[in-house]
Write a structure and sequence with these properties.
263 residues, alpha+beta, Fructose-1,6-Bisphosphatase, Chain A, domain 1, D-Maltodextrin-Binding Protein, domain 2, five-stranded mixed beta sheet, globular, binds D-MYO-inositol-1-phosphate, binds calcium ion, hydrolase, EC 3.1.3.25, Inositol_monophosphatase_CS, metal ion binding
Length: 263
């Protein structure tokens, strides 16, 4: 794969998609629900996914596409080149706030992330990485993550997991929020990974994420040294939904051993 040519191609594709999303703000959007009343999808999520897929199929016909809204391929294995796309990550924010959402895209070859992009559409901020060449926030090269401690960390976590639940040791999670310097909840897994990569937060934990939520961000955050696993400490799954923790390497182990524990 010629990564630098692809990188330029993808950046221009993402900017064009962003332009389309910003234009949608002046027209009426159609909102539907998916698995439950709070799981939203709009015609724009679907149109943007279709826009990417049409272009990728035209320009990279041998590649496969794994997209959230289901217009891509049925992906059961990671042989060859797979593009993992979330056309709008943070749809609830898109609908309610018209900000705090992103386009997320990762390109994987035989299961290894080669290119990663997270585009904060409203702020026109692009986070990206080419494997082995470091990660960037617009024109700025991101620095490797520096060591920290739990007590000095800002951790992104969804408040709903602090309520008693079947899966997570919520008392340990409560201890975490009592110990860290601060908590945040941005509502877009992709942006949360971008913020981890740029050192604005130190960890991000989620009970359930899909491959397209993390694919782009994993390449970017990996380039600055972030560690990403499921709650059992296993490599993040790129074929199905799973628990997910991404953290500064100096706190990843202790987060899992002492605070984020499955029941
Ligand atoms: C969602 C967002 C959200 C996370 C959910 C995801 P979507 O993606 O990333 O922050 O908590 O688990 O499904 O549906 O807005 O693309
Ligand atoms: Ca969704
Ligand atoms: Ca998503
Ligand atoms: Ca989405």
């Amino acid at each position: 794969m010629e990564l630098h040519a692809m990188d330029l191609y993808i950046k221009s594709l993402i900017k064009e998609a962003g332009h389309r999303i910003r234009n949608s703000f002046i027209s009426d959007i159609t909102i539907e629900t998916k698995s439950d009343a709070n799981d939203l999808v709009t015609n724009i999520d679907k149109e943007i996914e279709q826009f990417f897929i049409e272009r990728i199929r035209r320009d990279y016909p041998g590649h496969r596409i794994f997209g959230e809204e289901g217009f891509g391929d049925d992906i059961q294995h990671l042989e060859g080149v797979v593009w993992m796309l979330d056309p709008i990550d943070g749809t609830m924010n898109f609908v309610h706030q018209k900000r705090n959402f992103a386009i997320s895209l990762g390109v994987y070859e035989k299961g290894t992330g080669q290119l990663g992009y997270i585009y904060d559409v409203v702020n026109d901020d692009l986070y990206y990485a080419v494997r082995g060449e470091g990660a960037y926030y617009n024109d700025e090269k991101l620095k490797p993550l520096i060591d920290t401690s739990i007590a000095e960390s800002i951790v992104a976590i969804n408040a709903s997991w602090l309520a008693p639940n079947r899966y997570l040791d919520h008392e340990a999670a409560i201890r975490l929020v009592q110990t860290v310097r601060g908590t945040r909840s941005y509502g877009s897994a992709a942006l949360e990974l971008a913020f981890l990569a740029s050192g604005r937060i130190d960890a991000y934990v989620s009970m359930r994420l899909s491959p397209w939520d993390i694919a782009g961000g994993a390449v970017i955050a990996g380039e600055v040294g972030a560690v990403m696993t499921n709650f059992k400490g296993e490599a993040a799954n790129l074929l199905k939904q799973d628990t997910f923790i991404a953290a500064n390497p100096s706190i990843h182990n202790i987060m899992l051993s002492d605070y984020i524990r499955l029941k």
